[in-house]
Design goal:
heterodimer, A: alpha+beta, TATA-Binding Protein, 4 domains, six-stranded antiparallel β-sheet, 11 helices, B: mainly alpha, 2 domains, binds protoporphyrin IX containing FE, membrane (chain B)
Chain lengths: 520, 337
């Protein structure tokens, strides 16, 4: 035999695990504590990009901005699903593995636990002085008396020939198992809620109404299992929005309270009820929640076209440009104007004050002296009917805008308009009149059938984790020796939170050593 | 007293608390510096305990406790087994000279005074603004410093942890200093979203947990700083035990804080969980501390590795507290920094 052959011979034979062997190995690895630990790390680590990269579900505008500014990077982000980390495949892989590991951990532990529950504490060791806690005293205490006193302290007790073995703190393991099961409960509730629930956003101007149908929403995010018919058929009318601001001091202009007064019809045909919708107090209609999440101004305009006809009349919701002063930018499109379409870029100043350089600015967020500044007025084809999707907050695409005729430009823009004032457009193209101020609110509705189960599971988790972490499993042994010497030994069965046991042990020794009458 | 006067008083109390903490730190440091050096592990004591022997390590803290406890029942206890035998312990860093012990005692008194000033600052601020005084970063950091000192002083009432004194004091003084210098916000009302009783529940829980976790973080850093062998610092086992105790109490509180936050979000924003940056980092922190609790019972991870996990988790907590408010914008951007 050559050396090589010899080595071959002696090399360990490749062990054939077979399919079941591999499966068993995989399962054991997956459910090991080390794997759980690593998966927990991965879960934490995987969440980090969710806070650093803008998320589609939270901040779609920022995602769009990134695509504009750095398309290459954005595409790479998208390739790794970094714009929707928490619904990405890789994130799901981590938490599904973790929860599989968790189930694989819970099942055998529950079985062990149930067996433990029925098992009696072990017999007392021979030499109790070897135990971490030990005391000895002379008294006439009998084993059965000791057992009785320990039982009174809610120990589970076994007695033998001159010895007592007692154990307590089973709730620790109960808590631990319950905690892990509750985590599963949270996961399932969240999943259930996202399948059968929906969320929607809508903007409503004072005086207008809203009926809960899919079509009425500006943005509607349904779960996979939500059908249009399942929406709760309520409706409401927004009477007005009241905003209170801080008037003095350093925090002048800070909003103190928002109250949106609604008239709500819970069902079609049911009588209207009044409801004051506030931040932190949503309206609930049959399990659907309605939240006040934003507000702003909607100045009212009346626009007369070149032919003398009223081509537009109504409020125009403006986007807030500066939160502190509620300076807002408005876009008015008048596709019905004749002979040519009209478009306006305006700035709304709730409390307008002239500055020394001749410009105007808003000094306070409330509408104390509302004025509208005309930044630009245009005539020509706005491209509204081109079939391309349009945003109500931009006048037109840059290439369209370039072709429009500018009616007001730079130095010839008129002074800001106060309520009731109007400005004639050049070339007899019409007239813009600022007739009043309304406010708008943005609302979010949400229906989530998983929120109550999630709450129950989360509450269970808190209580269970307290049991698990704060209760200790402990054993106390008593041996009554001949001549009336009583040995007491004690130990805790869980690492860590053992502080305090020696006080308890001392207390137990005290109770055991006390005379017949002095038993508490 | 007017609101402005109260607010001014509160600012003064904060300054007083910083000074008292600094003085206390000096006292504690003197005690530690001139106290006796100790080996990494006390002879005869098992290292990173196996379950059964773990309590031994705690009982040595008060070697005579069993005897004392039973003494009142008629002095019947005759032996305390290994409890006394393994003696020594972390107990008092200042056994040798009475001077150093004195410094420690004075420091403790100063720390309590600082604590009172810190409390007074919070209460007067609350009275000045007529709401719960944790509506912005400044108030929040002042409250967490207070919670960390409270955790330290109340632990000290039952177990001797004076060795942590210098480090807790410097942390609290730095926290308050940071609050005053960087995050200061004058007294005033909060935005409507914060105007809810949930602030009392959610933020209070977060503050308590953060205070405890800060204590654990301090102990964890000392664990890593302390070399093997003799050192004036307490043994690693003691440091790890203090950290674990604090986390065991803090973890359920933090869990509750996160859940209360979700309940509040459900009231205010129309969803209980939306992966807002602050929510993400609270979650990361929570998972990281869960990882620590797991690491402690995973073979090969006990001791140093678990401590590193703990400190990473603490880093997440700090980032959530400061980093998220300063660098990342989200719905939680009420911080006023
Ligand atoms: C969903 C992720 C998980 C979280 C958030 C979590 C959280 C926790 C927490 C906070 C504790 C501390 C309670 C205590 O020490 O008594 C704990 C303990 C424990 N966990 Fe998990 N866990 C998770 C998954 C798992 C998995 C997958 C396993 C199984 C491999 C597991 C096995 C254990 C065990 C055995 C303990 C008891 C440790 C002890 O006796 O102290 N956990 N878990």
């Amino acid at each position: 035999m050559s050396v090589q052959e010899l080595e071959k011979e002696q090399a360990p034979k490749h062990v054939q695990l077979g399919l079941t062997g591999w499966l068993r190995w995989a399962w054991r690895t997956l459910t090991s504590m080390k794997t759980a630990l690593i998966l927990l790390f991965l879960l934490a680590l995987g969440s980090v990009p969710g806070s650093l990269v803008p998320q589609r579900g939270v901040d779609p505008d920022k995602v769009a901005l990134l695509y504009q500014q750095n398309p290459t990077l954005a595409e790479w982000y998208d390739r790794f699903q970094l714009f929707e980390v928490f619904s990405s495949t890789w994130y799901a892989a981590v938490y599904l593995l973790l929860f599989t590991s968790l189930i694989g951990c819970i099942i055998p532990r529950t079985a062990t636990y149930l067996r433990e529950l029925r098992r009696k504490p072990p017999a007392a060791p021979k030499n109790l002085s070897r135990l971490p806690h030990f005391a000895s005293f002379e008294s006439g205490l009998t084993a059965s008396e000791a057992a009785w006193r320990l039982r009174k302290r809610r120990f589970r007790v076994v007695t033998g020939d001159g010895w007592v073995s007692a154990e307590k703190g089973y709730l620790r393991e109960t808590g631990n198992l319950l905690f892990h099961i509750a985590l599963l409960g949270i996961l399932f509730s969240v999943g259930f809620g996202s399948l059968y629930g929906y969320r929607g956003n809508v903007l409503v101007v004072e005086g207008d109404g809203f009926a809960n149908t899919v079509a009425a929403y500006d943005r509607f995010i349904p779960g996979n299992q939500v059908s249009a018919e399942s929406l709760e058929p309520f409706s409401f009318q927004l009477s007005d929005l009241k905003v209170a601001y801080q008037l003095t001091g350093e925090k002048r202009g800070q909003a103190l309270d928002y109250t949106a007064r609604l008239k709500v019809n819970d069902h079609p045909g049911s009588p209207a009820r009044d409801y004051d919708l506030k931040v932190n107090s949503p309206l609930e209609v049959d399990g659907t929640q309605l939240y006040l999440i934003g507000n702003g101004y909607a100045p009212v305009f009346k626009i007369t076209d070149g032919k003398g006809q009223v081509a537009y009349e109504g409020p125009v919701p403006c986007l807030i440009e500066d939160k502190a002063t509620m300076t807002s930018g408005c876009v008015v499109k008048v596709p019905d104007a004749q002979p040519s379409q009209l478009g306006f870029l305006l700035r709304f100043l709730p409390t307008s004050v002239p500055l020394t350089d001749g410009t105007y600015a808003s000094a306070f967020p409330a509408d104390v002296n509302p004025q509208v500044e005309i930044l630009g007025a245009f005539s020509g084809d706005l491209g509204v009917n081109s079939g391309k999707p349009q945003s109500v907050y931009t006048l037109a695409e840059p290439e369209v805008l370039r072709k429009l005729k500018r009616l007001f430009m730079g130095s010839n823009t008129p002074k800001p308009l106060a309520v009731g004032q109007s400005v004639d457009l050049p070339d007899g193209l019409g007239k813009l009149e600022f007739t009043g101020v309304k406010k708008w609110i943005t609302l979010q509705t949400s229906y989530d059938p998983g929120r109550m189960p999630a709450l129950v599971a989360a509450g269970t988790a808190v209580i269970a984790i307290m049991l698990s972490l704060l209760i200790r499993r402990r054993r106390v042994f008593v041996r009554v020796k001949e001549g009336g010497t009583v040995d007491v030994g004690g130990l805790t069965r869980t690492e860590g939170n053992v502080a305090g046991f020696h006080e308890e042990f001392a207390e137990i020794v005290k109770v055991l050593s006390a005379g017949d009458k002095d038993v508490r | 007293m007017s609101a402005e006067q109260l607010a001014g008083l509160s600012d003064l109390f904060v300054v007083a608390a910083v000074l008292l903490y600094v003085f206390a730190m000096v006292g504690f440091a003197i005690e530690l510096a001139f106290g006796r050096a100790r080996p990494d592990r006390i002879a005869g004591r098992p290292s990173d305990g196996v379950a059964e022997s773990a309590d031994q390590q705690v009982t040595v803290k008060e070697p005579v406790a069993v005897g004392a406890g039973a003494g009142s029942a008629g002095d019947v206890v005759t032996a305390a087994g290994p409890l006394v035998a393994s003696g020594g312990g972390p107990v008092d860093p200042s056994e040798p000279g009475t001077g150093t012990a004195m410094a420690g005692k004075v420091a403790l008194g100063l720390a309590w005074l600082g604590w009172a000033a810190n409390l007074a600052a919070i209460v007067s601020r609350g009275l000045a603004v007529e709401r719960w005084p944790w509506g912005n970063m400044y108030e929040f950091v002042v409250a967490i410093s207070f919670a960390a000192v409270t955790a330290f002083l109340f632990t000290q009432l039952r177990h001797s942890v004076r060795f942590l004194g210098p480090f807790v004091m410097v942390t609290a003084a730095l926290g308050l200093g940071l609050a005053v210098k960087v995050f200061y916000t004058s007294a005033g009302p909060v935005v409507p979203a914060l105007d809810s009783y949930w602030i009392a529940i959610h933020v209070t829980a977060a503050i308590i947990a953060s205070g405890l976790l800060t204590l654990a973080g301090v102990a964890g850093i000392l664990y890593l700083v302390r070399g093997d062998g003799m050192s004036r610092l307490p043994s690693r086992d003691d440091l790890e035990r203090v950290a674990h105790r604090a986390i065991v109490f803090a973890f359920p509180v933090w869990t509750f804080a996160v859940i209360a936050g979700a309940l509040w979000a459900d009231r205010a924003w129309g969803r209980y969980w939306g992966w807002d940056p602050k929510e993400i980092w609270s979650f990361i922190t929570w998972v990281a501390y869960a990882a620590y609790l797991h690491a402690r019972v995973t073979a090969g991870w006990r001791g140093r590795a678990a401590t590193i996990v703990q400190l990473l988790a603490f880093g997440c907590l700090l980032f959530n507290l400061i980093g998220v408010n300063v660098f990342i914008s989200g719905l939680h951007s009420y911080a006023d920094v």
